[in-house]
């Protein structure tokens, strides 16, 4: 059962920001509601007011701009799974979206809502960190960009200020030759471990020019694992492949895995290692 | 009495006008009312079931503008100006939909609790992809849970319906 709340239906980002500023903690942004309404029904959180942001137009478009893809925060998972631009430019993200939860959740759940709610067992944040995505936050006439890797502070906690609104997700289109892979593991409805690798090779395809690794779901928030990247970056493919087990161990520790219904801490750390190895191989195989 | 009036004068209601199984419905809802409660308790259509209540099982699936949603976690005001279909609206003039017919012919249900959601989800699938592969079907339907059939009969039912429906729309038939 949901408790009563009042509904606000602003038409602009400025109005949303103003309402959030005026009502503070007693109000919450409501978009797809797939996470928020569950938490409210369970009684984990209560709000006097929900601010329905779906009346703000222009926030569900996917556009190309100077080698980057701009994704409106209100784009639903289903829209992104089927977006021709995303499928062509960042197919790994379109594929991730195709495998979020189930078709009913994807139909109404938004990417922006998913990121802002910061539920630990979510897919997109991990891949967005590996992709060096930037999140655009607005309030009033102020606009700033937050790197995806700095956005997730803790479980259910983000770097957004209380009256800031996430409006866009900017994803750089990877330079070639490169490969991107997101893998998840889990036997419950939500993923237990998620891992993303984005690798860029030199033109001769003999060395790792750059690599980004991010791990999520196992601990409170998705995070980049720079220490594991350092074991692989600038290395020949053979050397990097030899270093993968060590990078896996490092990533496992960095995941801050906790023991819960999804599995024990050491089990999750082991899964991180396995996923890193497989994701790395898959990303390399895409570097054609 | 005074208390009730005081409370009711503070209540916020949202006028909702939508199409339910092809017929216009107009009613006022409170913002927190869930679509499943409105459809079942206020409008008396009990085909959609409340089961997991957390968007996992699919028993409460309804079609909103032809797309599957979990009515258990959809606020009722969201259907303003939209078209809602429940299992009760699927048969036309007393004639079962080919999916319903196929579920009967292929034993696609046992206790029947998940069936309204299964059939509506399958309709959404076939509307966008009339001849899915078995893999596409499984991916689309994996969020609808059945505890009786073991799914094989459900898959057979949907594949049979897809075949029947596309053959029926071939020219010359």
The share of residues in extended strands of chain B comes to: 5-15%
Return the CATH topology of the largest domain in chain B.
Answer: Ubiquitin-like (UB roll)
Rg calculated over all Cα atoms of chain B = 18 Å
Q: What is the CATH homologous superfamily assignment of the largest domain in chain B? A: Beta-grasp domain
* Overall structural domain count of chain A: 3
Written overview of the protein:
The complex is a heterodimer of chains A (288) and B (173). Chain A contains twelve helices and 14 strands. Chain A is of the alpha+beta class and 288 residues long. Chain A folds into three domains: 6-50, 2-Layer Sandwich (Uridine Diphospho-n-acetylenolpyruvylglucosamine Reductase, domain 2); 62-172, Uridine Diphospho-n-acetylenolpyruvylglucosamine Reductase, domain 3 (2-Layer Sandwich); 178-285, Enolase-like, domain 1 (2-Layer Sandwich). In chain A, 50% of the residues are buried. The mean pLDDT of chain A is 97. A five-stranded mixed β-sheet of chain B has the order 2-1-5-3-4, covered by helices on one side. The model of chain B is unreliable at 1-6 (pLDDT under 50). Chain B is α+β, with helices and mostly antiparallel strands. In chain B, a hairpin with a 2-residue loop joins strand 3 (61-64) and strand 4 (67-70). Chain B has two domains: 12-89, Beta-grasp domain (Ubiquitin-like (UB roll)); 98-166, DNA polymerase, domain 1 (Orthogonal Bundle), CATH 1.10.150. Chain B is built from six helices and five strands; from the N terminus they run αββαβββαααα.
